[in-house]
Specification:
Strand order of the largest sheet of chain B: 9-10-11-4-12-13
CATH class of chain B: Alpha Beta
Order of helices and strands of chain C: HHHHHHHHH
Protein name (chain A): Amino acid ABC transporter permease
Number of helices of chain C: 9
Family (chain A): Belongs to the binding-protein-dependent transport system permease family.
Pfam families (chain A): BPD_transp_1 (PF00528)
Structural class of chain C: mainly alpha
CATH topology of chain B: Rossmann fold
Distance between the termini of chain C: 49 Å
Oligomer: heterotrimer
Radius of gyration of chain C: 21 Å
Structural class of chain B: alpha/beta
Helix content of chain B: 25-40%
CATH architecture of chain C: Orthogonal Bundle
Organism (chain A): Streptomyces abyssalis
Number of helices of chain B: 9
Radius of gyration of chain B: 19 Å
Strand content of chain C: under 5%
Membrane topology (chain A): Multi-pass membrane protein
Number of strands of chain C: 0
CATH architecture of chain B: 3-Layer(aba) Sandwich
CATH class of chain C: Mainly Alpha
CATH superfamily of chain B: P-loop containing nucleotide triphosphate hydrolases
Chains: A mainly alpha (250), B alpha/beta (271), C mainly alpha (216)
Shape of chain B: globular
Order of helices and strands of chain B: EEEEHEEEEHEHHHEHEHEEHH
Number of strands of chain B: 13
Largest sheet of chain C: none
Distance between the termini of chain B: 27 Å
Shape of chain C: flat
CATH topology of chain C: MetI-like fold
Chain lengths: 250, 271, 216
């Protein structure tokens, strides 16, 4: 690692900063998309549900990298829309991870007890008031753990922008590789950098979760250390975990 | 005297003559600070049918689970057919048993569970043949022959090719009995085997067990809330309360003229 | 917007080659992920800390870092250690290794979901450990998690274009090559985007149907 001069380190650290910016901006766009699409999927109008469902299926169905290529190379040629690389990257990541996020939003909205909706109706709240004042405040603590998983997937996804010439960590890594002629040190360092970012984000989300749960009067999640996160094992495995354990303990 | 039970060292059976199949000696079991079994001593002779009764939480099921090594005692020793179950002797000293040693001793013991615990991924036949083939080393043909005989005994011959989920609870429990018997155990442990069944299915299972009790010389250790069944099959009944045997004797004695106040209370509550 | 159907038909033969390579990478990657994930899951359950701890650390590390960088690592770093992989092999190994850390979690959930009574029945029948796992626990655990595994295969499909970046000519690789030669990016990239949806959407419907069937 003696070959890594201060200048090269600076390249990598600038890359870290850009990766952080990208992650935050894409997460904000993704969250906006997720809330709009997710809420729309519980809308009373069939057409709204259909359109939001179609959005989710299309953007979840295709590959984020292909979408990125499309925004970078097809949009300018076919529509004459040339975006700055950074914004094209945010758009691609936000749109596609937002589609995944919409499923989280829809799921946790649906998990709020129907009686809560009925109570809102009984109090003559408008649908919008019911959503913002009754359902969302109860639903959002439930969204945080899966949102954390998605956020880390997004962080990992930002590495794709290096292919488009956006100077993130991975882009910095290829520059350093070319400068030093060695791959092992720089790629090891870069992997560790991503891991540290993921670790910090997970810790942050856990703090957020504790606050959110305290806010709705639930017990905070157990404290634990490490980056270990619950990978979302989709519905079936969750359902199977609820199968009562038979056993003779008495 | 087939069983000798006491909770203090002074009155414990002094002569263990070797004919005892199961011997509990000063066994203590705790879960956290909760003492489930308190210095328990009792023996069961070969071929006897012993029923354990008592309020829930009194430690009856724990005895069966200790014998199956599903839980381990904090203190005391358990012998099955003269061999230590949870210990073995090494260089003249008693040390905790290896898994291999426990498994060897345990092969003498079969168990039927409250929740049947059949393997849902195997058909009835394979549920019964799996252990004889892979533990006892029987050939497939021998094991299947044995399984067919046992299925006839429990009256389920026509269900041999079904999955457990296609059977009623009572039928599943009868398969579980056949599965346990296929290992030709010396001891059969029955852990509240009818508690998870719909009331109309209980009789069929109990009939099978009565049949086995009366026609074989298998030793039975039975935890049940079916007092009529207990009266029918038991040679001895042990009344448990708070981790101790507070009273024991023939079913006639326990059910007709119990001595202990707690026994009377318990029986009047369940009968 | 300009759309040139002749470019589409010109791209078609290459598309099929790309689809074939994508599916090939997917099948091989899945096999690695299924097998290796099971190894991780069993190792993580080991009572030996010297086994469970490093495996947990390594799988967490792999799961929390980008696949693209891992592919670069396999493709650029290993040759420095005198292990040279072709782009396809590096891609398949990378996909399989990365997703094995997800399938490990799936298996773990599946194994935890097997009722404790099944373990007790195995003890009561004196079944040896190997038989307990192979005949009783794993068949039940894996059956429950088939849809979850399937969903990760679909996720892997959507990550598979990354192997184009190290030079494997799967769908995206073919599309890039075609547009570099013809200066027509619109048609090939749009077409492969649609092909991804055409494969992934029915597959995810299938998994949802499987989930429902297994739940009931």
């Amino acid at each position: 690692m003696t070959d890594l001069t201060w200048g090269l380190w600076e390249l990598l650290l600038n890359g870290v900063w850009l990766t952080v910016q990208l992650t935050v901006l894409s997460a904000l766009l993704g969250a906006a998309v997720a809330f709009v699409v997710g809420a729309a999927r519980t809308h009373r109008l069939r057409s709204v549900r259909f359109l939001s469902g179609a959005y989710m299926e299309i953007f979840r169905g295709t590959s984020a990298l292909v979408l990125m290529f499309w925004i970078f190379f097809v949009l300018p040629v076919a529509f004459g829309w040339q975006l700055l690389p950074m914004w094209a990257a945010v758009l691609a990541l936000g749109l596609s991870y937002g589609a995944y996020g919409s499923e989280i939003v829809r799921g946790s909205l649906a998990a709020v007890a129907p009686a809560q909706q009925e109570a809102g109706i009984a109090l003559s709240f408008s649908p919008w008031q019911r959503l913002t004042k009754i359902v969302l405040p109860q639903a959002w603590p439930e969204m945080i753990p899966p949102a954390n998983n998605l956020l880390i997937e997004l962080l990992k996804g930002t590495a794709l922008v290096s292919i488009m010439g956006v100077a993130d960590i991975t882009f910095g890594a290829s520059l350093v590789r070319n400068a030093t002629g060695q791959s092992a040190p720089v790629y090891t360092i870069v992997l560790v950098m991503y891991f540290v970012l993921a670790f910090v984000m997970t810790r942050g989300m856990r703090v957020l979760e504790r606050h959110a749960k305290a806010g709705v009067g639930q017990a905070p999640p157990a404290k634990s250390f490490g980056v270990r996160r619950q990978v979302t094992v989709p519905r079936q495995a969750d359902a199977s975990r609820d199968v009562p354990t038979t056993g003779g303990a008495s | 005297m087939s069983t000798e039970s006491s909770t203090s060292k002074e009155t414990k059976n002094p002569a263990v003559d070797g004919s005892e199949l199961i011997e509990f000696k000063d066994v203590t079991k705790r879960f956290g600070s909760n003492v489930v079994l308190d210095n328990l001593c009792f023996d069961v002779s070969s071929g006897k049918h012993v029923t354990l009764i008592g309020p829930s939480g009194s430690g009856k099921t724990t005895i069966l689970r200790l014998l199956m090594t599903l839980v381990k005692p904090e203190e005391g020793t358990i012998k099955v057919a003269g061999e230590y179950l949870t210990h073995e002797t090494k260089n003249g000293k008693l040390v905790p048993a290896s898994e291999r040693h426990s498994r060897e001793v345990r092969k003498n013991i079969g168990m039927v569970f409250q929740q049947f615990n059949l393997f849902p991924n195997m058909k009835v036949l394979r549920n019964i043949t799996e252990a004889p083939v892979h533990v006892l080393g029987l050939s497939k043909d021998e094991a299947e022959q044995r399984a067919r005989e046992l299925l006839e005994l429990v009256g389920l011959t026509e269900h041999i090719d079904k999955y457990p989920s296609q059977l009623s609870g009572g039928q599943q429990q009868r398969v579980a009995i056949a599965r346990a018997l296929a290992m030709r155990p010396q001891v059969l442990l029955l852990d509240e085997v009818t508690s998870a069944l719909d009331p109309e299915l209980v009789a069929g299972v109990l009939d099978v067990l009565r049949d086995i009790a009366h026609t074989t010389d298998i030793t039975m250790l039975c935890v049940t809330h079916e007092m009529n069944f207990a009266r029918d099959i038991s040679d001895d009944v042990l009344m448990f309360d708070e981790g101790r045997v507070i009273e024991s004797g023939s079913p006639e004695k326990i059910f007709s003229e119990p001595e202990h106040e707690r026994t009377r209370e318990f029986l009047s509550a369940v009968l | 917007m300009s759309w040139d159907w002749s470019a589409v038909s010109e791209f078609m033969p290459r598309l099929w080659e790309g689809v074939l390579l994508t599916l090939q990478a997917l099948v091989l990657g899945s096999l690695i992920a299924f097998a290796l994930g099971l190894v991780w899951a069993l190792a993580q359950r080991s009572s030996l800390k010297i086994v469970s701890w490093p495996v947990t650390a390594v799988t967490e590390f792999i799961r929390n870092t980008p696949l693209l960088v891992q592919l670069f690592f396999l493709y650029f770093v290993l040759p420095e250690w005198n292990i040279t992989l072709t782009a396809l092999v590096a891609g398949v190994v990378g996909l399989g290794l990365h997703y094995s850390t997800y399938t490990a979690e799936v298996y773990r959930a599946g194994i935890d979901g097997v009722p404790v009574g099944q373990w007790e029945a195995c003890t009561a029948l004196s079944l040896p450990r190997s038989r307990t796992w192979s005949a009783v626990i794993l068949p039940q655990a894996i059956r429950r998690v088939v849809p979850a595994l399937g969903n990760y295969v679909i996720a892997m499909l959507k990550d598979s274009p990354m192997i184009a970046i190290i030079g494997a000519l799967e769908m995206l690789g073919q599309a890039r090559q075609f547009s570099a030669e013809t200066f027509q990016p619109t048609e090939p990239i749009t077409v492969i985007g649609i092909v991804f949806i055409l494969i992934a959407y029915p597959a995810s419907l299938l998994m949802r149907a499987l989930e429902r069937r297994l739940v009931h």
